[in-house]
Amino acid sequence: MFTTSFQALGQRIATLRKHQNLTQAQLAEYLEISQQHMASFEKGIRKLPASMLPRLAQLFGVSVDELVGLIDTAAKRGPVPKLQRQIEQVALLPKAKQKFVSEMLETVIQQAAH
Question: CA 20, CA 84: separation in Å to the nearest integer?
Answer without folding.
Answer: 9
